[in-house]
Specification:
It is built from 15 helices and 15 strands. With 452 residues, it is of the alpha/beta class. The protein folds into two domains: 2-228, Alpha-Beta Complex (Amidase signature (AS) enzymes), CATH 3.90.1300.10; 244-289 and 333-441, Alpha-Beta Complex (Amidase signature (AS) enzymes), CATH 3.90.1300. The protein has an eleven-stranded mixed β-sheet with strand order 1-3-2-6-8-7-14-15-11-9-10, sandwiched between helices. The chain has a two-stranded antiparallel sheet with strand order 4-5. A two-stranded antiparallel ribbon has the order 12-13. Helix 3 (24-42) packs antiparallel against helix 4 (50-58) and helix 8 (218-228) packs antiparallel against helix 15 (428-441). The chain is globular, with a radius of gyration of 21 Å. It starts with a helix and ends in an 11-residue tail after the last helix.
Length: 452
């Protein structure tokens, strides 16, 4: 029963809390017990504040005006400021960086009654999609601990995947919420750029950073989104009939694991049978997208980290120092040109969305790579593991469109497979409603990880 409760959705936990089947204190203690048992193995946390969580749980009351997430335990990537706690960004550089106030996202969840348990591990300063961290360890995949949880929100995915919280906050600059969620059998949601405030979150790239969530299902993602953005509209009624879904002709189904493609075929057949209209779409050219993204990322990262380099440069990992050095080598002309590419990508994608409601792709072209893998190979072509993990997600950070990944199958290797849905700008509510509709009607149930 405790294991089932630890993996219960927010909606189920709310019901139990509201009917007094369980108290907020009992729920905190359930997760605290699991953290004591799985915390070290999951490498999910950099810091915990269970004392404050217990105090807040004891103060939870049920009344007519109960906040939407009253008593729901969550965690956050250690880029989010929590007043009075250290925000390390997964690095020695900020080991004494005590936050004076809560990030806007943390304040919003607290206002909704949610209770923060602690701060999650990550790829140092969110610079990497594998989630590896030499200082705090590399979070493993809950379905196979020899494999990566994915990054950079690796600890957030591990915390949820190991049943140590009910939801987690992350950041997504190239897929850092959606990709680890996909690899770990979770739902990863990146709202439209700018809809959710990033104030109080240590930046990596101001142009590309999105605050996002990892949850157990799309309904939970909608609850978290509504708490983060109280002005969000109610989710519209969703139905699959007559929905026009775009299927990219190129790139987004290329060099992809055969079993992932088979799962997407099954999902597309289901959507057609449900009355959706699937049409091929011509996407913008992807020839230069990774270069464009990096040309924006590294100067922006450098502009933040310049303040620390002179006095604390030796505390950065060698990997991240190399990235910052790249930022120093790029010219202002190249940065501006990349920004102009991004604006063109946005316009071209808006034109695509004039013809379709949603776009469907695989979430990742590969299942979770082995921990320590430098490269992965698909169809005889090798590429860096981090590039592969985010190959289908990073483009939509440049265009700023909302995107969600959700489980749709299991690989023969025993690892989750996920699909990605992308919506129009500011149509977050419609995208969440569609994801919930698919989740409810599609005949697939994700097995829980066997942590024994």
């Amino acid at each position: 029963m405790n294991r089932q409760l630890a993996y219960a959705s927010i909606s189920e936990l709310r019901r139990r809390l509201q009917t007094d089947e369980i108290s907020a204190t009992q729920l905190i203690e359930l997760y605290a017990e699991r953290i004591a048992h799985h915390g070290d193995g999951s490498k999910a946390f950099i810091s915990l504040d269970l004392e404050t969580a217990r105090r807040k749980a004891a103060e939870v009351t049920r009344c007519a005006s109960t906040p939407s997430l009253n008593g729901i335990p969550y965690t956050c990537k250690d880029l989010f400021d929590v007043a009075g706690q250290v925000t390390t960004a997964g690095s020695k550089v900020l080991q004494d960086n005590v936050a004076e106030r809560d990030a806007d996202a943390i304040a919003a969840l607290n206002q909704a009654g949610a209770i923060c348990l602690g701060k999650n591990n990550l790829h140092e300063f969110a610079y990497g999609a594998t989630g590896e961290n030499t200082l705090y360890g590399t979070p493993p995949n809950p379905y196979d601990r020899s494999r990566l949880a994915g990054g950079s929100s690796s600890g957030s995915a591990a915390a949820l995947g190991f049943g140590l919280c009910a939801a987690a906050l992350g950041t997504d600059t190239g897929g850092s919420v959606r990709a680890p969620a996909a690899l770990c059998g979770l739902v990863g949601f990146k709202p439209t750029f700018g809809r959710v405030s990033s104030a109080g979150v240590i930046p990596y790239s101001w142009t590309l950073d999105h605050v996002g969530s990892l949850t157990r299902n799309a309904a939970d993602a909608a609850l978290i989104f509504r708490a983060l953005l109280p002005t969000a509209r109610d989710l519209p009624p969703a139905q699959l009939a007559d929905r026009v879904i775009g299927i990219p002709r190129e790139f987004f189904f290329d060099r992809c694991d055969a079993e992932i493609l088979a799962c997407l075929d099954n999902l597309m057949n289901f959507l057609r049978a449900a009355g959706a209209r699937l049409v091929p779409v011509e996407m913008p050219s992807m020839a230069h997208t990774r270069t464009v993204s990096l040309t924006v990322q590294m100067p922006e990262a450098l502009s933040y980290h310049n303040r620390h380099l002179e006095q604390r440069g030796h505390l950065y990992s060698q990997d991240f120092r190399a990235g910052l050095a790249l930022g120093q080598c790029l010219l202002a002309e190249q940065y501006i040109r990349a920004k102009r590419f991004i604006e063109r990508y946005r316009r071209e994608m808006d034109a695509v969305f004039a013809e379709v409601d949603t776009i469907l792709t695989p979430a990742t072209p590969v299942i979770a790579p082995q921990i320590g893998a430098v490269e992965v190979s698909v169809e005889g072509v090798s590429e860096p593991a981090g590039n592969a993990i985010t190959r289908y997600t990073s483009f939509f950070n440049m265009t700023g469109h909302p995107a969600i990944t959700l489980p749709c199958g299991m690989h023969s290797a025993g690892l989750p497979i996920a699909a990605q849905l992308i919506g129009r700008h500011h149509a977050d509510e419609q995208l969440l409603a569609l994801a919930q509709c698919i989740e409810t009607d599609y005949p697939f149930t994700l097995p829980l990880p066997d942590l024994d």
